Amino acid sequence: MQWTLILTISLSVISLTTSQTNNIFDFWTDLFRPLPHAKKEGFVPDYTPKNNQKFDFIIVGAGSAGCVLANRLSEISDWNVLLLEAGGNENFFSDIPIFAPFISITPMNWDYSSEPEKRACKDLRGNVCYMPRGKVLGGSSVLNFLIYQRGHPEDYDDWEDMGNEGWSYKDVLPYFKKSENIRIPELYNSSFHGKGGYLDIDYASYSSPLETAFKDAGQELGYTWNDPNGENLIGFSKPQATIRNGRRCSSSKAFLEPIRYRKNLKVSKYSTAKKLLIDPLSKIAYGVEFTKKSKRLRVYARNEIILAAGTVGSAQLLMLSGIGPADHLNEIGIEPIINLPVGYNLQDHVTFSGNAFIVNETGLCVSDMIAASPMSAAAYLAGHGPLTIPGGAAGLAFSHTKYSNDLSDSRPDIEIVMGAGSLAGDFLGIIRSLLGVTDEFYLKVYGSLPIQKRQQSFALNPVLIRPRSIGRLTLRSSNFDEHPKIQPNYFDNSNDMKIIIEGAQKIINTKSFQKYDTKLHDVPFPGCEDLVGTCKMGPADDPTAVVSPRLQVHGAKGLRIADASIMPRIPASHTHAPVVMIAEKAADMIKEDWDKPIFKIS
């Protein structure tokens, strides 16, 4: 049945006309609803709480962190745990690694976008950047590009230096390893990796022909081919990814599905939290108000409520519930309960995805037409082929530029992600729609390239992994259904732009790439993956902090946050791995505070 389904899609996609590709996203979304896969036993049963029902713990958000928390807290058999998730199940299509961009333009995404930016998001629709966030079991681990990368050890030592005791690298490494099931043979005996955890980490089974050139180019430039989660981050590598047998291993698959029949864990899907119930006098958080099937329900927590709704969702819920900057809440018409700097400290990794490098041979690059072919579909069903490439990323490189004199030489400030294809080869418009690139922009930049040349193109996308620019998230109104205002302030610090410009060209100039006569398609651009920090962690005497080093909301009782929003400074990493670590550590903190056995650090 799955083979028939993929073959039908592949043939249908290839036969689409240019005008039809504008609607390809609706076409694919409709085709995959409902899916046979959704009826399989692996899916987590849905539970609808009774109005006013009580639980020991309520977790809001079944994303990268929420699934981990639900698993670990329900290990205590006498605790009743409720997990609320606004979305539903993953499906067969969301499992396909290379089609990660497509999932972001389906109902599995909250569809957030930034406010118009002065220095970034140029030539995107409305001058805004799209900010995909998962609205599905597994959250953003279903939408992301699957790359598993933790950052530099000093990133976490910095957290501790900022007053967050217990968050140094030596403290958090055991929690990274706890969740991990490394499936890369040469790393089985590494002291930096774990075996037997819930989350599978592996390479894509497919190796792009460009991978060898990328590796050789790094060696020409003096870099080692290394483990980006090992002792040294600087260097070149093949991406480690959350992959299981060629398919996406989301947090839901890893942490929820194996325990879906635990009697003390209930998962309520399509349940959108609208407000936290907080006593204005005692400051005790005692319940959550949410909607499901057009009904408004309330549930109550005997012990704690844990927010795992992400950088946008957790900050929004806090402010709607009266926890946030008092002046802003008053302006919106919300009675402040606790005055805290919620929504500040917004940080994001910035990337540029528009470059296209042309080679003189066929068979080196992967365009979307190749990915959608029946041959690729058949290989995928066997766990192989180009569809297993994580988000299309075939190589990673981390380096230190001259603009980061405040960092040690071992700490990178720029990442280069080599894509097996490029935006020029996005014939079906999937990546264009994800980024918000207009058709006019695409045609002006790439229209002069023959179709064959577009298929013979790949990308080297620079990612600013240590941004200095800081943004803010604010409410638009007191209505949860109105998305908040997200203002990243990209390139507010001038060094951020200088860093992101440096990097790709020196790789292309190596002999390893010049043997393919690799050239940048240099038509000028007209007009020119990782939000964190809105509920910053810090000690009580830090006026910029929202939660304590034990992740408890300052001034409140019975309320914690465990997701990317607590990061005081964004690490030089793809944020999925750190978020899983935060949830693992948070679960032990909760157990410790309630006098239950915790993970023994080895």
From TrEMBL:
This is Glucose-methanol-choline oxidoreductase N-terminal domain-containing protein. It comes from the Eukaryota. InterPro entries: FAD/NAD-bd_sf (IPR036188), GMC_OxRdtase (IPR012132), GMC_OxRdtase_N (IPR000172), GMC_OxRtase_C (IPR007867). It holds the Pfam family GMC_oxred_N. Its cofactor is FAD. Belongs to the GMC oxidoreductase family. GO terms for molecular function: flavin adenine dinucleotide binding; oxidoreductase activity, acting on CH-OH group of donors. Residues 1-19 form the signal peptide. Residues 134-157 form the Glucose-methanol-choline oxidoreductase N-terminal domain. FAD binds at V136. Keywords: FAD, Flavoprotein, Signal.
